[in-house]
Design a protein that fits this description.
The chain is of the alpha+beta class. It folds into 2 domains: 227 residues, FAD/NAD(P)-binding domain (3-Layer(bba) Sandwich), CATH 3.50.50.60; 116 residues, D-Amino Acid Oxidase, Chain A, domain 2. 38% of the residues lie in helices and 27% in strands. Strand 18 and strand 19 form a beta hairpin. The mean pLDDT is 97. The protein binds arabino-flavin-adenine dinucleotide and P-hydroxybenzoic acid. P-hydroxybenzoic acid binds next to loops. The site of P-hydroxybenzoic acid has 10 residues, from loops.
Length: 389
């Protein structure tokens, strides 16, 4: 088999890149180790920056998002028993779109099928080869049979645990990492959200987040210890803990009900540099991870795709490699600013084991200053809505 761009991974990165390439007449094949249903079964991000929504429109996959997504002009910060609204639109002129990653993935998969894009599901043991030479290719197994996909370029869109970053270990790859001494226990429940906007809560018992997927489906999180087991968390225990971390009037207003999904995710800050190795490019979670506090993960995948797609289109149409040569530096400049914001927001909103009462007061003082300062609120808002691509 041969294609122009081999894409490993059918998550948001791979699908968005694949669609933009297809629409530009650049042949591409996606190799995905899982089944379509397994990929769609993952519950992940919930907040899209305008840059991301614009790219979904460009890829012809934005219609359902505009019909069913929830545009949000702001969000609430609660601390010391008080509510403070960060008015994103007033502070930045921008808003965010609340629309689950599962739906983004579904829309992109449907668009790919409509436009004849090729995705090979259950492609096992995908491995990039000869990307520092001129004839890159990817090997994989399909139905147990060894296959080879020759290409001009390989896009490693295979997430944090995928083979692309592993293939460049020891080839000049440098990694930067910060792990956090806690995780997020999240649930999805078919109950109306407690508020029409998101609520980020700093509380001495720990962080909590009230989010949603629609006006009838809520997404809630509480910070939990790393050694927590989901089995130890009945729905009742989750609802009690969540409400204990919110102002009284919010807790009383909350509609509870049976969870339809419950899981614990670890938090990590991670960056791999550079993001390009010859004809192999690392994209999205394959290159970087942020703690979900700032809702940046999926949105960083979109900006990586922007830079890489523009470079590949320039290579094929203008016979110029300036764009792909600049990919890593351009992507990392935005990645590191999002890493900083996500790290800052995580440090400000979560309870750290060694923080003590002084640490709690310092966080409350930071939030009190932030919510009382136009300059500080604007800084938070412009990072949250997304810095320019
Ligand atoms: P993905 O991990 O989504 O996709 C990678 C794809 O590659 C997967 O389909 C995988 O099956 C495939 N793959 C892996 N190995 C392969 C191989 N060997 N061969 C072929 N295919 C292979 N972000 C937010 O903004 N907000 C959140 O609340 C949030 N919550 C998250 C919760 C969890 C548990 C996780 C893990 C991430 C969360 N994220 C969140 C971040 C998440 O949304 C990512 O940023 C986003 O999925 C990035 O998309 P991709 O780069 O496409 O990587
Ligand atoms: C979500 O809805 O899953 C979500 C929203 C905002 C975040 C993290 C997760 O910061």
């Amino acid at each position: 088999m041969r294609t122009q761009v081999a894409i490993i991974g059918s998550g948001p990165s791979g699908l968005l890149l694949g669609q933009l390439l297809t629409d530009a007449g650049i042949d591409n094949v996606i190799l995905e180790r899982a089944t379509r249903d397994y990929v769609l079964g993952r519950i992940r991000a919930g907040v899209l920056e305008e840059g991301t929504t614009h790219m979904l429109d460009e890829a012809g996959a934005g219609a359902r998002m505009h019909a069913q997504g929830l545009p949000h002009d702001g969000f609430d910060l609660t601390f010391a028993g008080k509510h403070h609204r960060i008015d994103l639109h007033a502070l930045t002129g921008k808003r965010v779109m609340v629309y689950g990653q599962t739906e983004v993935t579904r829309d992109l998969m449907d668009r790919r099928a409509e436009t004849g894009g090729v995705t090979i599901y259950e492609a096992a043991d995908a491995e990039p080869h000869d990307f520092d030479g001129g004839k890159p290719y990817v090997t994989f197994k399909s139905n147990g049979v060894e296959q080879r996909l020759d290409c001009d370029f390989i896009a490693g869109c295979d997430g944090y645990h995928g083979p692309s970053r592993k293939a460049v270990e020891g080839k000049g790859l440098e990694t930067f990492e910060r792990t956090y001494p806690f995780g997020w226990l999240g649930i999805v429940a078919d109950v109306p959200p407690v508020s029409h906007e998101l609520i980020y809560s700093n509380h001495p018992r720990g962080f909590a987040l009230c989010s949603m997927r629609s006006n009838t489906r809520s997404r809630y999180y509480v910070q939990c210890a790393l050694d927590e087991k989901v089995e130890a968390w009945s729905d009742d225990r989750f609802w009690d803990e969540l409400r204990s971390r919110l102002p009284a009037e919010t807790a009383q207003a909350m509609t509870t009900g049976p969870s339809i999904e419950k899981s614990i995710a670890p938090l990590r800050s991670f960056v791999a540099e550079p993001m390009r190795f010859g004809r192999l490019f690392l994209v999205g979670d394959a290159a970087h991870i942020v703690p979900p506090t700032g809702a940046k993960g999926l949105n960083l995948a979109a900006s990586d795709v922007r830079y890489l797609f523009d470079g590949l289109r320039e290579h094929y149409s203008d016979r110029s490699d300036a764009g792909i040569d600049a990919y890593s530096q351009r992507a990392l400049a935005r990645v590191w600013k999002a890493e900083r914001f996500s790290w800052w927001m995580t440090n400000t909103m979560h309870r750290f084991p060694d923080a003590g009462s002084f640490g709690q007061r310092i966080q409350e003082a930071e939030l009190d200053y932030l919510t009382g300062s136009q300059a500080a609120s604007t800084s938070m808002a412009e990072n949250y809505v997304g810095l320019p691509f």
